[in-house]
Amino acid sequence: MAITTQTIQDGGVPKKTQRNILIIVTLGWVLDAFDYLMLTYIAIDIMKNFNVTAAVFGSVISVTVLARLFGGALGGVFADKWGRRIPLITSLLWYGIFQFITGLSPTFTLLYLFRFLFGLGMGSMYSIGVPLLMETVPSNRRGLASGLVEIGFPVGGILASLLYAAIYSNGGWRPMFYIAAIPGIILGIYALFTLRESKAWLEKRKQEQGINKIPIINLFSGRQLWDTVHSILVNTGFLVLYYSIAAWYPTFLKEQHHFSVGMVSLITILLNLAAAIGSIVFGFWSDKIGRRWTITISAVGSMLGAPLFVILHNTGLLVIGAVIIGFFGPGGVWSVNASYTAEHFPLSMRSAGHGLTYNGGNFLGGMLTPVIIGLLSVQYGFGVLMTVGVLSSAVFLIIMTWIWRETRDMDMSL
User: Fold this and answer.
1) Chain segment 201-254, per-residue pLDDT in tens
2) What is the reported pTM?
3) What residue ranges define each of the domains in the chain, with the CATH number in brackets?
4) Residue 389 near residue 329, CB atoms below 8 Å
5) Are the C-beta atoms of residues 333 and 234 closer than 8 Å to each other?
6) Is 370 within 8 Å of 58 (Cβ atoms)?
7) 127 Cβ neighbours under 8 A, 6+ residues apart
8) How far apart are the C-alpha atoms of 114 and 172, rounded to whole Å?
């Protein structure tokens, strides 16, 4: 019997296939987080190695974010036109290879170049993988699937913390990149042999005799224009909140609290463990109460936890704040990012839309936030700037959520 779009929407895709796609996309997101958090741990030593300032090093994060914008948009276009499978596998192998090459960087200029090339693959991975997953799972489980994907970031953070505590020695930043590269390459090879094409995309291609439109242009045409702009803006809010928390947190703990490697690792693990729990809890509830209320409640929680999160001279309150902000911020707020962004777009332009708008938000929020905090940290300190970033982005997200429609029950097969 043919599998119709309605069957797909109702969960006609075999559960084994759903689980496999969930595993691949989540592990890809784990590796993304692992790389990013690893970079924050070794930032000081890279700066010393190449004799650059915090603001200059912050621009390494920014150039990676810029590359993600290009990689996400191009990868999304390819995925909408030729299918999700091959572009996703290519992106996994690509960023694994350039992760390894980054560790070989003899100069800061080449480090810039390798991070840019790495970012192309990483931006493409999330932009293709998430729409594939959202098209695969039943509509009443999209929020939970989104929450499960988003635990990838805190889990990646925990793994980076454990690796940092286990093998890191003063100045030895290069082996961190070598070790981080191996799982990405293995995951790409695994996906090559196990990943199936999106049935929703195949059905759409059959109905339209191929998807030949230019999705980037269509994203900014007619009624779709506001949805695209809104997705860019809301993702900017997501990323400002995240980078305000994560970009300089290990540096903040080391520089302003003078914590040991073990203590920095422990507090960061607690934050990420709370985020993993929050992602599952709020992802589950987003299927019950909708995306609006999930973002609103978790954004308010982030605002309440932000002052404790960075309070000085009291380690106990700082740890409590880290748990609260982790649960509501990278946990609660981010639990719906995958589903909410994908729900802005119809199937024929979903990967391109997801790739462009998520990475567009990452460009605006992720490229500027680390640099601004790095530049102003000498005058105001990391703690104050991180608090301001969390508070302002949380308010912005609440506003943006309530000026757009609820998408919990959207049919992803259309």
Assistant:
1) 788 777 665 545 556 788 998 889 999 999 999 999 999 999 898 878 877 888
2) 0.83
3) 5-402 (1.20.1250.20)
4) no
5) no
6) yes
7) 71, 72, 73, 75, 76, 79, 351, 354, 355, 356, 358, 359
8) 19
